[in-house]
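#help-structures
NK: newbie question, is this the right format to request a structure? protein is SH2 domain-containing protein
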Amino acid sequence: MSVYGQVFDVDGNSLQSPSPFSNIQSPATENAQMDQNFVYLHNISAEQYQIFKDNVDMLFNGRIPLHEQQYHLTTIAQHVDEFVIPAFEHEKNYLINTVLCNWAIKQQKVSIGSVFTQMNHYKALSVVSTQFEYFGELLEQTLNGLFHLKTFNQTFQHFSILFERLREIVHFFLYYSIIVSRQPPSVSVKCGDAENHRRSRFWFNTEIRVLGGKAFNIDTLNAGKHIKCHLITDETAKALLNSAYKEVVDNEDFTLEPMVAGISSTNFHETGTSAYFEDMRISKKGPLRRDSVASRRYHICYTINLTAKHDIQLVGKKVSLPFAVLVGPKVEVEARLFLERSFANLVQLSSCEIPTEVGYEEMADALEMKFQSIVETPLKSTDTIPVVKPRMLSNQAKHHIILRLKPNTDAKILLENFMKSPVAEEFCLKKGSTTDGEWKLVPFYDWFFKIAEIINKYMANMWNNELIYGFCSKDEAEYLLQSCQCPTLLIRFSDIEYGKVKVSAKYSNNEVQHYWYDTNELASRSLSKELLTNSRFSGINCIYPNINLDTALGGSEIKKTSVQNKPRYLQPSAVYFDNQGSAT
């Protein structure tokens, strides 16, 4: 007899059970829909899920006669096996291996850039998170449906097998959805005005974030839990690749603070479910040789132990990108770390091996980000970096810089040129002498980093206000100045002399003169004041291309101050001199 309106198990027992499903919405946000590959794959998954849902709803709503239930159950199981799970596998692989992997690869590259650049990329994670949440909802609803089906008919073992298969897919998806969403910097320097020279000079923040876990109640089931981290060597990090359950119980070589952060979903729309490690700092555990430490790479290892619905346990380790801990500044090490973060495949491979050559645009973009990062480096450990868009390098500047790296005919740059190719000279005094010395060749990385450091220390405002033209040869400066109608200054960086700023000045008689300033002069007197008060620039009105010099550099204020500070011209009388005796 056909019976509708009641739910029966295979033994004919009535089961009153509402549908275990809720309606699943397709991606609705504009950003999520921009990824057409995701939309295509997700729609396939959603269509297969909808067929599964409709079939199960028919069963649970009592619309399948008792004598047809066995066949209907077989049909559902076959559909899940042949269509639902394969569709989910394809979408899972795309999200993990393409979407998240591409985001992580770019995260590695921008980690050498400015705070603004890194924050912009971090915000892009919200789109990835949305995609993961949509897929997570499909997975949870399907897993929930299979759970009810295996409970509904315990003698039909295929649903138990399908449940475990899908549960494994979910476990994989959720575990690899846990990421290091904020990475440590490529270099942590223990020097400068660090407290007692024991802590890292500049503190940093890191974060562990869960994507796509809301449907599995990861946010609520783990509220109040903590994630612990340790500082480990590169050797330990590689060992973890073979055994994710390898126990890490202590920091290696250095200590790390803080080591614990709580899981929170308070600001879910911006940071999701995450553990935020704020103001991380590194301290020495014991005596260490500078050279031996400089050659090592370290990671932060986060111990994960989270719970999700359907009795899913997410246990393992998450490891940050490699970085160096320097006991004192070491430009060469920082340069090598720049190459590793910019060009090595640290996301997909365990080694820090970098390619021998890279393309023109890839190198230009990496150099621009590194330059911006050095320019905004705080001068004191108590300073904070404002999240503002940094000045971009012009195409002309990028081209000028890249040509110094000697690209080949295929517009490829040998990375060996970055480290070894001499581009400038530095006059080094002999020990104990104030005049006697010799010229030494300076490699590209040292010349380039030094320019950014000079801007950071002495000319940040002028650079950010685009009063400094920057990368430009002497001949190019003279050519540009010839087109100016009035006497004009062009401020540029020396190509030949290490650590010097050049001021090319065009006078009213069309003559162009070049003047240089080194770091000692810039440290003792600001360049803006020098340009306003030095008599050699008195007849010059503009900064290239046509910026009023007085207005741009606050000339009226400086002149006003100078007038106020001038001693009064006294015309003393005989009475004045007679009174001086009483003042002594």
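mod (FA): yep, format's fine, and the tokens are attached above. Residues 1-22, 191-199, 558-584 have pLDDT under 50 and may be disordered.
NK: thank you!
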